[in-house]
Design goal:
Structural class: alpha/beta
Keywords: Oxidoreductase
Number of domains: 1
CATH superfamily: NAD(P)-binding Rossmann-like Domain
Helix content: 25-40%
Pfam families: adh_short_C2 (PF13561)
Strand content: 5-15%
InterPro entries: Sc_DH/Rdtase_CS, SDR_fam
Protein name: SDR family oxidoreductase
CATH topology: Rossmann fold
CATH class: Alpha Beta
Largest sheet: 7 strands, parallel
Family: Belongs to the short-chain dehydrogenases/reductases (SDR) family.
Order of helices and strands: HEHEHEHEHEHHEHHHE
Strand order of the largest sheet: 3-2-1-4-5-6-7
CATH architecture: 3-Layer(aba) Sandwich
Length: 283
């Protein structure tokens, strides 16, 4: 359908991590301890940024990883190398999470490759800054919701038959859900929907022994913002308005995903963690 085509030709998103002047810090910060030994994880948006950091950390902790991404093949190949350097198996799956058929195929190929699926990380997302609500086109509005929230429904629907007791789903929401963002009206709205989805899905699955939680990052240095996801005015002071006075790095966010995905968080479901540089939010 035309209204769900990836908007990569409009603004260059999702963007190449390899093209950034300052490379994000995605490498795991600590030695592994086997917290995900024998597990298989599917991570969307895993070619760069937070997704790459999560993939590398999961691999260090013992997981095999399916790297789902849109179109940045060079970045995805680097993530695969990072996973394999930790001694784990990796597959790369290129496609649009807003396409239900692709989500079905991605899950099927993951299970075929690894024989199981234990962890689903719904991380893929897109954003497009606009100063005026009247500038948000119908195509952009549909596309942002298609990727950011429809994609989570589609991927979870595909994964559900393979998730057994003890499995975990971790969704990526945002500080903009709690604070709002005057430049990201459509994006912030999808992040609010993701938080509600997380809490509702938790209620739906907790009785089956499947935990569902979320992470709400603050401003994190990834390709998304410098490649068109933020206005030039916002980008020049990106992250400086946090109490810590700087943007975060992907490897400062990944441990939140690890905690929620592993048995350390076995008594947590329906919750949101906030790696955001010290910003206090209700939630």
């Amino acid at each position: 359908m035309a209204d769900t085509e990836p908007m990569i030709h409009e603004d260059g998103l999702p963007g190449h991590e390899s093209a950034l002047d300052r490379q994000p810090e995605w490498q795991p910060l600590y030695p592994g301890s086997g917290r995900m030994a024998g597990k298989a994880a599917l991570i969307t948006g895993a070619d760069s940024g937070i997704g790459r950091a999560v993939a590398a950390l999961f691999a260090r902790e013992g997981a095999d990883v399916a790297i789902v991404y849109l179109c940045e093949h060079d970045d995805a190949a680097e993530t695969r190398r990072a996973v394999e350097a930790e001694g784990r198996r990796a597959i790369t799956l290129a496609g649009d999470v807003g396409d239900k058929a692709f989500c079905d195929r991605a899950v099927a190929e993951t299970v075929a490759a690894f024989g199981r699926l234990d962890i689903l990380v719904n991380n893929a997302g897109e954003q497009h800054p606009d100063q005026d609500i009247r500038d948000i086109t119908e195509e952009q509005l549909r596309r942002t919701f298609q990727t950011n929230i429809f994609g989570m429904f589609f991927m979870t629907q595909a994964a559900r038959p393979h998730l057994k007791r003890g499995a975990a789903i971790v969704n990526c929401t945002s500080v903009t859900n709690y604070q709002g963002s005057k430049e990201l009206l459509d994006y912030s709205s999808t992040k609010g929907a993701i938080t509600a989805f997380t809490r509702s899905l938790s209620e739906n699955l907790v009785g089956e022994g499947i935990r569902v939680n979320a992470v709400a990052p603050g401003p994190i240095w990834t390709p998304l913002n410098p490649c068109g996801g933020a206005s030039p005015e916002k980008l020049k002071d990106f992250g400086k308005d946090t109490p810590m006075g700087r943007p975060g790095e992907p490897n400062e966010v990944a441990p939140s995903f690890l905690f929620l995905a592993c048995e350390d968080a076995r008594y947590m479901s329906g919750q949101v963690l906030h790696p955001n540089g010290g910003t206090i939010v209700n939630g």
